[in-house]
Structure of Translation initiation factor IF-2:
Amino acid sequence: MDSKVLIDECNKAGVKLKNSALASITPEERDIVIDYLQKQDQPAEGGSDQTEQAAMAPQREPQKMRTIKAMTSRPQPSRSSQKARIEEENPELEEEASSADIEQPEEEAEAAVAEQTAVETDAPAQEVSEPAATEEQAEEAPKSKDETKPETDQGMSREDYVPAGGAPTSSIREMKPIGSPRSSKPQSKSKKNTALPSVAAPPAYKQPVIPKQKKKEEKAQKPEVRLTADILEQKSPLAAHLAQHSEQKKRDKDRDLQDDDSKQRRGSLSLVEARKQRREQRKEGRRGFNTEGGEQQDVVGRRPRRSKRKHDSSNIVHKTEAEVELPMTVRSLSEAMGRPAKTIMSIMFKEFGEMVTINQIIEEDTALAVAMELGVDLTFKKQKGALELVEEIVEQEDAPEDLVTRPPIITVLGHVDHGKTTLVDTLRNSKVVEGEAGGITQHIAAYQVEYNGHKLTFVDTPGHAAFSEMRSRGANVTDMVVLVVAADDGVMPQTAESISHVKASEVPMVVAMNKIDLPDINEQKVLQELTAQNVLPAEWGGETEVVRVSALQGTGLDNLLETLLLTAELHELKANPNRPAVGVCLEGFRDEGRGSVAWLIVQKGTLRIGDAVICGKSYGYIRAMYDDQDQQIEEAPPSTPIKVTGLDSVPGAGDHFVVVGDIEQARELAEERRHEGRTDVLSRHSGGPRTLDDILGSAREGAIQDLPLIIKADTPGSLEAIRSEINKFEHPEVRVKILHEGIGGVNESDVYLATASNAIVVAFHVVAEDRAMSLATQEDVEIRRYSIIYEVVDDIRAALEGLLRPELVQEQTGRALVLQTFSISRFGKIAGCRILNGTINRNDRVHLIRDQKILNQYPIASLKREKDDVKEVREGMECGILLSGFNDIKEGDLLEAFRINEVKRTLDSSS
């Protein structure tokens, strides 16, 4: 079959192929084409015997053939003559061979054997000689007689064969095909196909199963609803509206047609007639709205005005009270008060001259003024900050049945060097005072003493003037106060200050008159001075107990402790140990091995290891707790002084600590408090002129000299005390500028900051790191170390006084009277004078006095005695004086000589 015919048959069978002889098809498509061709051939060959024979022919399996040795062929005629002879005998053989080459697969592995044997074989013989033939060859072989004839050369007889080695021909068996050939015609030689790799047989293809279509169900019949006369007479509720709408559309359409006609006619009108027509249309448009009936008629040209809805404002009830949340805008204030925003904006413009927008934030004072204008009682709802939440937890009241007796917290107050720390050391058998620099207490501390089975907590405070804040904190956390007064000194300034702290805190006080073992004491004087401070002793009829003690000898300490226990029993000091702990931070510092350490005292509840705590701007878990003897403990009941570790930073002295639910809440509260503190620091350090008036004022007054300082201390309390003392230095010409303050030693960043700002580094009870010390030496930065606070104060005062400009003081040295004047053209007028008193020096300046009035002051240009220049002239001698810049000197003038001296000023002196 021709390739073109085969392609047409494939297309008819439903297999779309390219119009090319080399087009390939899949095995499934091949089966479809074969089935189609068989169906086409059945009517034509329905009764033929060949089809029956082909169907009834037995199919034999190919036998295994033995290997045939190579044999030489005899001389054969040339290919051209042989081919011509074959074409003459079989003219249609060439076309059959070409069609067989297209359909036969290209996997002929045994083609060489067929050429050597040159035996005429039929289709079954060919399958045996070519075992690698594909399944397609086996199926196409019996289909057509012409398609299965391979192309072969002319057969040769046995007599023509000559073996290669000259062996006799009798040893070679004649090769005959198995089975009977279907045709006696010589088969054409098959074309040698290209060897291809073996490919697995394609999988069996199953025709898709077409599901049977279900019978279509008939649709349910709808009930027949007949329209009665009543239904037909009913009208739609929108019938009137639809009719009106259709009429309006019809009128609009007619008007558009009229406008088109008028536009068409307008071209034929003159200018005057067209203008007149436009005027008439405008008049009709103005008359087109009937105001009496309120109905809109046909309007041509102009759109009718809309009638505005009038509100009756007389029945509106305005609010008299409103609550607004901060921060507030004009919109939120308007919504809260129930007033229009434009009313609020107009009031702000009239009263304050401010033009605001509806989304602009307004202050509380402005909102209150606007509310007063509108007659509204305005209240503000503020969000609770971290400080308010902590205060609520601290001030939370406990149920009376949960309260138990707790030890009293006793604060020891008094003047410096009156024996406060020595008294506490004697009570707890320690030597704390020996470790303090200068023998004075510079840190607040807390200790617990046990006496007769009862515990007492003592808070020791510094007595120096610089530690006023520490004494104030000690008085605020205490239940009672022991005021230590030395019997030899009496009431001193810090004693009076401590009395004021006690009165402010409204706690009971016991006076301990110390140093009674010293000679020359005057107890009556001490009692009188206490009475002068409104502290009336009990022995004089007052309420304050005065106990005579000696801290060094231990005299009277038992009486003091019994008095304190009795006072605590009278006041019934109780607390709830089962609630979350609440207390105060007395002091904080940084330890190299423990990190941030806080000295706390528990007021309510019980503090345990693992609690999440917020203390001021610090937060963290309690990782370890130590008592006043530095022994580790697991929990701290009320009135227990402890040292804790685990906070992220050193807390501030005087900050309240509370136990919160989790660490996240503690972190949020601490971050909020840090933000508030950062804002305060920025507002405090934002010095310098801000407005033009400030700049001009500072220019007139002269530049203020700043003393930049970097302060590093061991505890927040010490830092607070130094800052408090520095803030006391006030002078219009100099001031202290604290660039940085912190807890811990001096590090490299402090030195770099000091280098950039020419600052002095103050290290109080701390040392500098090694690298910071070497860097300071390299950069020439001064690091001053102190252990006593009043030394810091004195040095800062001296540095500030050194920045003050010295005071210029005139000192009179002598007086001279002008007796005669001499005029010299080269120099001018020279005054011949006699020294009345003192001496006149060449470097002095003189006041020119005439008629008892000082005309001016001039420097001396030349001073001569006779003809010699001299440095000074003494009393009673005569000399010649030439003034610089003045040439009108006369006889009888008085010259008063003086020199200017620079005198160092102090902060206490007036500027």
Summary: The two ends are 131 Å apart (CA to CA). Residues 3-40 form one domain. The chain has a mean pLDDT of 74. DSSP finds 27 helices and 36 strands in the chain.
